[in-house]
Structure formats: C-alpha cells, structure tokens
C-alpha cells in the first residue's frame, strides 16, 4: 500500500503532506479510497508513534525544503482488547467513539477509534 500511495502522489506531481487511504478486503487485496491533501485529525497519533512533528514537516515542504526523514515502511498494527476505557467528558466536551471496555480492536480496523471535540 505504501508503494501504491507514493505512486499515486507521484503520478499527479503532488508535492506536499497528506494521506492516501485504501480499503482492504479479507483476501488482502486493497483498493484506493481517497487522497487527503491535508493533515488528518488523527495526526497526533502518527506523531506519537513516529516521533515526527508533521506540522513542522508540512511547513518545510511548503517552503520548498525536503522532508527531514525518509519514508520507511513500518508494520504498524494496533489491535487487541481494550481493557479499560474512560472517555473524556465535561462541559462542552464531545467524545465520539464506538469503543467500550472489553472491545476487541481487529487487525483490519479503521484507525479512527475515537474523536474528541468541543
């Protein structure tokens, strides 16, 4: 999928930061879904697991500079059982999620497990 995402961006001459999303079926075949030419709302998760400031990288690219890292493929799968869950709350806090204690995150999940807003 990584090669396909890079090829898709290269085929249109895209220079910037963004995401390419695919759907994966049970046979392991994947299909293009969409390309987002912006930082996704889930970007803090990517920043945490990659130790990369994506906003800083986006600004560098906009200034014509090169990325400070090379694109290396990592097999990142977040799956397993959620043993405890205490959603954010309070006045003017909104938590949208489908997870609950004892929920099992499957290996072929949509990475947006929850979203906090206000």
TrEMBL record:
Top class in the EC scheme: ligase
Assigned keywords, A-Z: ATP-binding, Ligase, Nucleotide-binding
Secretion signal span: none
Domain annotation ATP-grasp: ranges: 3-63
One matching Pfam family: CPSase_L_D2
GO terms for MF: acetyl-CoA carboxylase activity; ATP binding; biotin carboxylase activity; metal ion binding
EC code(s) of this entry: 6.3.4.14, 6.4.1.2
Keyword set includes ATP-binding: yes
Protein name: Biotin carboxylase 1, chloroplastic
């Amino acid at each position: 999928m990584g090669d396909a995402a890079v090829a898709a961006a290269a085929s249109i001459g895209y220079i910037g930061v963004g995401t390419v999303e695919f759907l994966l079926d049970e046979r392991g075949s994947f299909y293009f879904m969409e390309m987002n030419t912006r930082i996704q709302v889930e970007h803090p998760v990517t920043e945490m697991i990659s130790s990369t400031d994506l906003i800083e990288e986006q600004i560098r690219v906009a200034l014509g500079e090169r990325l400070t890292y090379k694109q290396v493929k990592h097999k990142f799968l977040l799956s397993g059982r959620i043993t405890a869950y205490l959603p954010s709350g309070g006045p003017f806090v909104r938590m949208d999620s489908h997870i609950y204690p004892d929920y099992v995150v499957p290996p072929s999940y949509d990475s947006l497990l929850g979203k906090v807003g206000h």
